[in-house]
Amino acid sequence: MSQLIKLEVVTPERPVFSAEVAEVQFPTATRGYYGILPGHTPLMTEVGDGLLYYVQDGQKHFITVFGGFAEVGPDRVTILARESETVDMIDLERAEASRQRALKLLKEALTEHDLAAAQAKLNASLIRLQAAGHPAGHGF
Amino acid sequence: MAGLQDIRRRIRSVKNTQQVTKAMKMISAVKLRKSQERLVALRPYAGKMMEVVRRVVGRIKGDATIQPGPAARAFLFPREEKRIRVILVASDKGLCGGFNANVLKAANAFVAETTSEIVHLDVVGKRAAEWARKRGLPAGAEYIGIPLTGLQRVVTEISESAAAQYNAGEIDALYVIYNYFNSPMSQTPTVFRVVPMELDRRVEGRDALEVSHLLEPDPNAVLETLLPRFVETELLRNLLESSASEHGARMAAMDKASSNAGDMIAKLTLTMNKIRQASITNQIIEIVSGANA
Of B10, B62, B173, B205, which sees the most CB atoms within 10 A? Predict the structure, then answer.
């Protein structure tokens, strides 16, 4: 397979990633993970929270994505993420601290709303930890 | 001599002013850099967003089998513009050259020309608020003294209420009047219609050739989440453009003021030296004529 896909990930704060890759998989908001290979039918969908991975030179790499939109063409995948970071951008200590905080909030949560907020926070920290290969992320 | 004293005092005062303008120029340069960084980071995202929205809109317009929902329909098929909402973006502070004057002039022209009724006017910046009050226009929300980090909140607030108004049919269009940031030295006052979106024909034509997109889970769901994000992104971009423009304009104005002060000091110093020279010459003449006598 000689064809490649141009993967671009941009957030309002910065362009996160741009390169030619062989394969992409990303989480959608409503339909689980989508795997994209070159020559995919044009597609447009909402992105969920989770881990995107791409394959470059036979190697799998991770990028976190949190919400936004994905646009897929035969030779491109464009992700307009609300938030996103490559593994290098993740601050492990901060993610771990945020996980601990979220766990604490989860225990103390009284209202439905607090619970949902704490859960979302926990998910986000777990996604980051998993991307960075931290053991705590594997339970996710 | 009294003249000499006066000129010395003036030189000192001009020097003080120059120091102030120099300091303001430095501050503006720092602020400009911050605004510009954010703007430059956002522009690719906003550009991509625009591209994606155009493709989706082109797709939906070109396919008769898709029945757009109310939100999508309002966005895709412009209504007659009877009632509009306008957001005017200027600055809080002056001393930034033609920055405010230009954008307010554009606003004046817009108000004079428009045939639709402005039902809601949001103003960002004290100068814009003052202008709206003077013109007796219906004041909506006023955003004054918003720091760079607070822009996101303003954007969310405005875009949410504007989207609600638009969907409810209370407004038929949303305009933003702001200064577009060309470069630190140049800004263009711009009137921009956020919704309904202006599709340029060239883009529509090109996209029609492409294979149409699958929209999942379904076209309406995608559009209904995409459109608010689009409005938000465009607003944020406009506010950042204005912020960067403001600091650029102030930097240019203060730079000019500093160099003017420099010219003035040079001129005054020359006059002062002339007077001093004249008085020395006078004294010598007095001494010489006294010795001769």
Answer: B173
